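HUMAN:
Could you generate one sequence with tokenized structure?
ASSISTANT:
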Amino acid sequence: MNRKKILRRIKVVLIIYCLVGLGVYYFQEVIFFRPVPLPKDHAYNFAQPHKEILLPYNEKSGISIVQFTTAGTAAKGVVLYFHGNRTNISRYESFAPVFTKHGYEVWMIDYPGYGKSTGEFTEQTLYDWALVFYKLARVRFSPDSIIIYGKSLGSGVAAQLASVRDCRNLILETPYYDFPSIAGQYLPIYPVRMMVRFKIPTYQYLQKVTAPITIFHGTSDGVIWHSNASRLKPFLKPRDEFITIAGGSHNDLAENPIYQQKIIQILEAGIK
């Protein structure tokens, strides 16, 4: 192969590299987040007893919350559930019975642009809304009756909230070290820490959480790798737990007996 052909190929590779990098930088919200908005008059077809709240936040945004209630008995507590990056509350409603059948209400919040929530999607907005969510729960529940739960994208938001507010437990399902580290899994040849605008440093927040922490992660998670979440272990307290589920993937951990048994233990144990 002559020198001219080599230079031409190098040029093509560099052009592709730059185009992919620019695409990731300018369209990262579209790549990382997959919201599905819903009209305000949309009727949720949930089989479980629930109550919907549309909470005005400011002139340009409003927060949609669905409260899944317990059947026939007074609630023992509440689980504040921060869901993943796809769709809206409708996708995660099936996880509520894990808690409601044991006497705990489950409140789910949609992020800006998800479901009936409106407003600009920013990292700071996620934290601000989480605090509003918590304050709403405090109207009815004491901190020792509040469990903060984060799944996937929501795990970093949940960790941030638990770092600034008291709760009974913090539970994280398929969490990540920080947001750029997820992008780094798929784009190892790019300077993702400079490219990704969302940081969500879960590892920093965990260091400030005083409540017991339980982490669930599967070894076959193809979205957020187990090795990524394992980087959180050094920031856990001695009483905290990192539970590895062999063969577990990103969306099936709630079906695993190990997960189910541990959740029951947490719900029934009270403060550790």
Notes: The chain has eleven helices and ten strands. The radius of gyration is 20 Å.
